[in-house]
Amino acid sequence: MMMARKQDVRIPTYNISVVGLSGTEKEKGQCGIGKSCLCNRFVRPSADEFHLDHTSVLSTSDFGGRVVNNDHFLYWGEVGRSLEDCVECKMHVVEQTEFIDDQTFQPHRSTTLQPYIKRAAATKLASAEKLMYFCTDQLGLEQDFEQKQMPDGKLLIDGFLLGIDVSRGMNRNFDDQLKFVSNLYNQLAKTKKPIVVVLTKCDEGVERYIRDAHTFALSKKNLQVVETSARSNVNVDLAFSTLVQLIDKSRGKTKIIPYFEALKQQSQQIATAKDKYEWLVSRIVKNHNENWLSVSRKMQASPEYQDYVYLEGTQKAKKLFLQHIHRLKHEHIERRRKLYLAALPLAFEALIPNLDEIDHLSCIKAKKLLETKPEFLKWFVVLEETPWDATSHIDNMENERIPFDLMDTVPAEQLYEAHLEKLRNERKRAEMRRAFKENLETSPFITPGKPWEEARSFIMNEDFYQWLEESVYMDIYGKHQKQIIDKAKEEFQELLLEYSELFYELELDAKPSKEKMGVIQDVLGEEQRFKALQKLQAERDALILKHIHFVYHPTKETCPSCPACVDAKIEHLVSSRFIRPSDRNQKNSLSDPNIDRINLVILGKDGLARELANEIRALCTNDDKYVIDGKMYELSLRPIEGNVRLPVNSFQTPTFQPHGCLCLYNSKESLSYVVESIEKSRESTLGRRDNHLAHLPLTLILVNKRGDTSGETLHSLIQQGQQVASKLQCVFLDPASAGIGYGRNINEKQISQVLKGLLDSKRNLNLVSSTASIKDLADVDLRIVMCLMCGDPFSADDILFPVLQSQTCKSSHCGSNNSVLLELPIGLHKKRIELSILSYHSSFSIRKSRLVHGYIVFYSAKRKASLAMLRAFLCEVQDIIPIQLVALTDGAIDVLDNDLSREQLTEGEEIAQEIDGRFTSIPCSQPQHKLEIFHPFFKDVVDKKNIIEATHMYDNAAEACSTTEEVFNSPRAGSPLCNSNLQDSEEDIETPSYSMFREDAPLPSLSKDHSKLSMELEGNDGLSFIMSNFESKLNNKVPPPVKPKPPVHFEITKGDLSYVDQAHRDGQRKSVSSSTWLPPDGFDPSDYAEPMDAVVKPRNEEENIYSVPHDSTQGKIITIRNINKAQSNGSGNGSDSEMDTSSLERGRKVSIVSKPVLYRTRCSRLGRFASYRTSFSVGSDDELGPIRKKEEDQASQGYKGDNAVIPYETDEDPRRRNILRSLRRNTKKPKPKPRPSITKATWESNYFGVPLTTVVTPEKPIPVFIERCIEYIEATGLSTEGIYRVSGNKSEMESLQRQFDQDHNLDLAEKDFTVNTVAGAMKSFFSELPDPLVPYNMQIDLVEAHKINDREQKLHALKEVLKKFPKENHEVFKYVISHLNKVSHNNKVNLMTSENLSICFWPTLMRPDFSTMDALTATRTYQTIIELFIQQCPFFFHNRPISEPPGAAPSSPSALASTVPFLTSTPVTSQPSPPQSPPPTPQSPMQPLLPSQLQAEHTL
């Protein structure tokens, strides 16, 4: 009921009359008091509906219109408001005024014409159809506005608002107004209606007027006063609501707010609305090209827009929008201006970079200069209208050119001045840099390698500090140091070449002795070029070692002038001059156009072929190249595991011509497959002309087997393999001979041995033409060698032009790219001359191994090294060989002006005179000499041809036998220098027990010619012994002996003797064989890149290792294994058997024939350093001392004879056994020794070789060095093929450890160490620990745990053992194994599986005792334990579940124990060993299979 009553209550309506001073201008002044504005603001408060101008001067028609309706009051309409008590009410507002006639300027006459005071006090107003008033514009246009009539045409006034204008009105007196108001108030008071005094225009109010108004109100009995401002919309509603509350007595009294307080509130409201509106505008308007109409439409519905327009109006909103647009445009212009100003310096640098051109020009003149530049329009645009920022150019975003009128602005002038200053400063800095460089160049204190800290005080001055930054002068100093270091190295290299005679006289091998290195330093020590590198001893040492390597192993790659080696230039010139016959001949399918390629078939079922192919590829370089005898060969593998009659498994394809086949087996089934496949392959080629497969070299290999062998034993498999090998007429290799390690099919040495045999077979089958054939040599009358010096200041093109362009010059038939054939008339006949054009370093091996009829040696008259190399070369040339010396000069003027040229020419002439040679000089300014200048020399060669050939034949026979001291020490005796570079020399393997290729196979290049030689020499007592030894050499001293050749008469004629050298070397090639390795007595696994090599590789022979600088600028050294090993005593042809024979029979003095002497004995200018030849025992530091050599000679007397058998297969006497023992390595692990350097004192490390506990802390449980190495490897080397298998350079590893020992913050990346060097250094760290990382007492527990058959129980048992590790060892072991696990995850790239990694790492981590054969058998257990740790790393160290092994079951000894009896490990009951000693290892069942003498040897 209450709700219904409230809803039925009608909204109260109040009628309010607004009165105040009105009348003519005389009475009220020029403007009204603001009654109309007050009513307007209250009735229509929106700013857009508020009007300031409301005139009271009307025309008669307007006055009589329906709005005014002939009344002197205006009806403003009805307004609804909510009062303070939230009660709605309505108010009708009426304004009492007085309208003035615009004609008479007197009040209009109305129906009720009364004075304003009486009329304004009227409480009843009536006017029929009177319309609501809006503004003055409405008058006369009523139809354009809303037409709302005054209700009922009459109103009863409920109260009055009495307005008082407190502003300074024009022509109005406030006192008069107040007097008028007082009279009006008196009249209003009579009505008894509520009255409220309203002070209008308070925004312009006068303080006194306001006080007087308040005084007036106070005098009238509680008359309330409200201060308002219609313009500012302050307290307007308050005035009306105050009157309503006075009318309705039931309402509470309204609180009247002072004007300034109300103004503050209103201002805050407007400011808030303005902020919101500006935010709205900034969000919507992003482009300065927007217009108000479109934007206002977008904002129409936004409350921010509506609120602000309500308070301030649309015009102010538009004004703010325009201000925002202006701001956007200004920002856009400024951005463009900044871009232009930023581009201006670039334009200056491009157009006016020369300071001399603009140094004294003002900006205006520079502007004119810019216009003249060709690229002016590329940088600037000239606008028709200016300034640029007032044109449409600001919106042309595609044109980034600078408006040219920008140059007239101040910022542009400042930039121009800055450009001038910059150029001046750059000029000054350039002058300072030049002065600094000049100081560096002229200062005697700046030497190569001197640190900046030492040089600073001699160089710097105040100007340098002022104008140059530290980074600048440090960079200049660094570059200068690099220049002088490079120059010093070049000069030092030239010095080494100038002392070529010394290096060749010392007969240096791969590992020069300390005594020889000392001689080199003593001889060179006083040279200024040697002293210049005093502060760079490492680099100097590296250059010496690099030069020694060049002397010992001369190739195009090791040549100091590489890549400008003379050999490379000559090959290019000759190959471009001729097209070889071999390039045209494609008919013979057996010919291989690529002599550096080996095609190998690998035959084996059940994955054997693929597995071996992967192992061989792992030993190759990234581009499938393999190094044999120091030469790179491209190795192509074809694994076959299926039916060979199918095309996909065929041995031979149109693109693959096999050179040999490896046949693998590990069971009866796989052996049967091999036999069947070989027979099928041979049957498929029967009857063909190119039946190459019938004679394909085969090698049968017994490899490791995993899986069930069905009771087969090693012995039975070996016997079956030997039988099959005999049937197939091929070589047989078994594990005992190969030393095959577990987890591998074949080791690196075997692979090299097999591939060398294939190369020899290729040559014997004429698949490779490495040298000229007998027919080719027979067609040549003379063989001349022309020697040129690499690096001489003359072009080989000019020197060889007369030769290559001669009409008689033809391509050589021997397939060489450095030889040509000449047909020249010499005497009465034409002679065919084979001219080999070589560098000196290539000629050194030629002079000792090939038949040469004469030498033409060139040298530069202005280069000492050139003549020095010539002297070194002539020292070892036999004095019967004619020599033609040719000096190359710059011309006659140069010879006269240059003292060095004159001296060199004089010395060359004197050498020619002393050796009875010929001498000529050729000015290179006129290089087009003619071949006729060599005709006298050619005539000399023809005259001596027969004696040269006879001597060559004699030397070949004598060298093949080596029975006397005279032959052994003959001028042609082999040396490391020449033998190491010959492809034909044998690898120095142990005495063979059988030949790699069958002995009864025919010798294609020997049978006929060897018979001739035998017949001619028959009955010659002096040479018969030589030939018998020569034959036995060719047959490799293996029974049964070769049947003797039938005697045929042989006559020595010209051209027939040159084949002997070829035949001899072919025989050597056939002698490559496999042998049974002797189990070594002691090993040092840390010396090997492959631990399996360390375990089973024989060590009674030493591989040659070259210490070669890898990058002389960094002083780094790399170590290269020499596959083609040289003799330990520096002489011989590379055969052990020959060495033994020569050393045993050295005491026999058999004078054979007289020999020619060397030129060194005839010329005083040759052999300056000959005294050093006999000062040292020939060889390296690692060779036998004199006592051992004496014992060896004594013990070797029992092995004389032609058919000496393997020493290990005979009963040894004690002396022999003692010598063999002395040759073996010590089994004890030596303590880390001081590391020697060529010139520096020994290095004692405080970090390496110390207990692990001294290099770790609880905070840093991992050694810093190990952490750095592994971080470097994981960042750069995870994809490196063969990581941890391929050895690093020992010198680099030592350098790395030395540098780290001095600075633990060493950055490996900055030092540019190779990945293999870092990996090797890391392994070396563990190898040098006093105790292994896996303690010895823990190894026993690990082996016991490994014996558990159940895999899961085994892994848990191993994990329990790990927990017993010392804390330091456990943390480091965990870190290393986690790293190896990560490496194994990249095995598809690096080819290092967990098995391969364990093979490489277990000796380093566990270091067992290799002094017993038992250790060799137990090695598989150790390796498998480490493999399990790597595979199951997450389980052991990171609490992850056990992972399944990849592929087949893990290769563990327990698995092998049931399948391969000869590999079974049977433990020996013993007490645990102390931690410092290796644990006991099971006894090997292989020992009963070893020969008795080997067992006896093993037990020593």
Break the fold down into its secondary structure elements and pairings.
Layout: H1 2-8, E1 13-20, H2 25-28, H3 35-43, E2 57-58, H4 60-64, E3 73-82, E4 88-96, E5 100-101, H5 116-120, E6 124-126, E7 154-156, E8 159-165, H6 174-189, E9 195-200, H7 207-218, E10 224-227, H8 236-247, H9 259-284, H10 292-299, H11 303-312, H12 314-351, H13 355-358, H14 363-371, H15 376-379, E11 380-381, E12 402-403, H16 410-442, H17 452-459, H18 462-467, H19 470-498, H20 500-505, H21 514-524, H22 528-531, H23 537-552, H24 566-577, H25 581-584, E13 597-603, H26 608-619, E14 625-628, E15 631-640, E16 660-665, H27 668-684, E17 698-702, H28 714-728, E18 731-733, H29 735-738, H30 748-764, H31 774-778, E19 782-788, H32 796-804, E20 809-811, E21 819-826, E22 829-839, H33 840-849, E23 854-860, H34 864-875, E24 883-889, H35 892-897, H36 899-914, E25 918-923, H37 935-943, H38 945-961, H39 965-968, H40 976-979, E26 994-995, H41 1007-1017, H42 1021-1034, H43 1059-1070, E27 1073-1074, H44 1091-1096, E28 1104-1111, E29 1116-1122, H45 1136-1144, H46 1186-1195, H47 1214-1223, H48 1264-1276, H49 1290-1302, H50 1308-1311, H51 1315-1327, ...
Parallel strand pairs: 1-4, 1-8, 2-5, 8-9, 9-10, 11-12, 13-15, 13-16, 16-17, 17-18, 19-22, 19-23, 23-24, 24-25
Antiparallel strand pairs: 3-4, 6-7, 14-15, 20-21, 21-22, 26-27, 28-29
Overview of this protein structure:
Helix content is 44%, strand content 11%. With 1500 residues, it is of the alpha/beta class. The strands form eight sheets. Strands 20-21-22-19-23-24-25 form a seven-stranded mixed beta sheet, sandwiched between helices. The N terminus and C terminus are likely disordered. The termini are far apart. Strand 21 and strand 22 form a beta hairpin.
